[in-house]
Specification:
Largest interface: A-B, 37 and 30 residues
CATH class of the largest domain in chain A: Mainly Alpha
Distance between the termini of chain B: 140 Å
Number of domains of chain B: 2
Mean pLDDT of chain A: 88
Low-confidence stretches of chain A: none
Mean pLDDT of chain B: 81
Helix content of chain A: 55-70%
Strand content of chain B: under 5%
Strand content of chain A: 15-25%
Order of helices and strands of chain B: HHH
Number of helices of chain A: 8
Distance between the termini of chain A: 60 Å
Radius of gyration of chain A: 19 Å
Radius of gyration of chain B: 67 Å
Strand order of the largest sheet of chain A: 2-1-3-4
Structural class of chain B: mainly alpha
Oligomer: heterodimer
Number of strands of chain B: 0
Largest sheet of chain B: none
CATH topology of the largest domain in chain A: Peroxidase, domain 1
Shape of chain A: globular
Number of strands of chain A: 4
Largest sheet of chain A: 4 strands, mixed
Low-confidence stretches of chain B: 1-9
Number of helices of chain B: 3
Order of helices and strands of chain A: HHHHHHEHEEEH
Number of domains of chain A: 2
Amino acid sequence: MKTNLLNTRAKATVYAEVLLGAARVRNNVFDVAGQLDQLVAAVRGSIELRKALIDKTIPAAAKKGIVAEIFSSFAPELLTTFDVMVDRGDLSLLPRVRDTYVALAEKALGAAFVDVTTVVPLDETLREQIVTKYSAQLGRKVMLREYVDPGLIGGIVLSAHGKRIDASVSSQLESARHVLSKTV
Amino acid sequence: MKLRITSVARISVPVAAALMAMPAVAFAAEEGSSGIDLIFPTMSEFIPMLIAFIILWVILAKFGWPAFIGMVDKRAATIKDSLEKAETAKQESERILAERNAELAAAKKDATEIIANAKQQAEFVKADIVASAQTEAETIIAKARLAIENEKKAAIADLQASAADMTIAVAKRVIGTDLSTAEHKTIIQRYIAEAGSFNEN
């Protein structure tokens, strides 16, 4: 008899595999990974959206309309998969689907997805520098998912496979503030 | 004074005195009736007087003298008893006085001991109170010093934290507003070169 955890993993894997198959058909695997990240962040950051999506009194068609309106720029295969998850009450599986999808996508593309956050958008020189350095480290092709966050003040934050390299000015200033406040 | 007198002595003393006085009185009356003779009786008077005297003496010796001696003896016995009683009372008084003096001395000794004990106890209590007060004072002082030290450390920590916050805030503002895009990219480029590896974690 399967436990709830195994059921959850199995369900998430099914959703991720279906989404990956559709994305591969549309040759959109990498972009869907980025959009899936944004979708997770949006659902996690909005209580109203979560409440609306799990409210059983709201018709499924209305929920689909809400999703289509908010995430209109996202890939159709992603929105379709998401609608099915909402219909079946599997919204809580979204982060696990995202992680499974990224793992499957990296395997399918033979690449490693690296999230890069900076204060200003990267130019080609910086991208090349990052890809070169971390392709050598990870032993495979690196595909960057770029984000801009002025809160970093400066520098760069990289994350991949649940690991994070924080070379931002804000974290260094925070370290300096900690040292200054503790020094007698 | 010897109060016990024998019956022989009681009779012989007045008889001897009477016999010694009688011849002188009798012969004085026979020598003449002028001058000094006038005061002495004549023989005719002397004999009856002597007989009367003897009869009187016998009667007194027989009845008066024993009563007198008895009264004297009784008086002597009374005085003796009184003296003995006085002596006994005196001895009793002396005994009682000695007892009272002893009791007084014992009481004085007890009082002295009680006072000494009280003084000693008071000294102990005083020393205890002084020691307790000193300990309490030292504890209060130590707590006050600790509180002052903690307050001082807290104030210094607050001051340092405020200074650090202010410094970092200024640094953030300066870096965030003064750096151009090119400068940001230069920093990013340098940090990429200096950043660690995913494999290290």
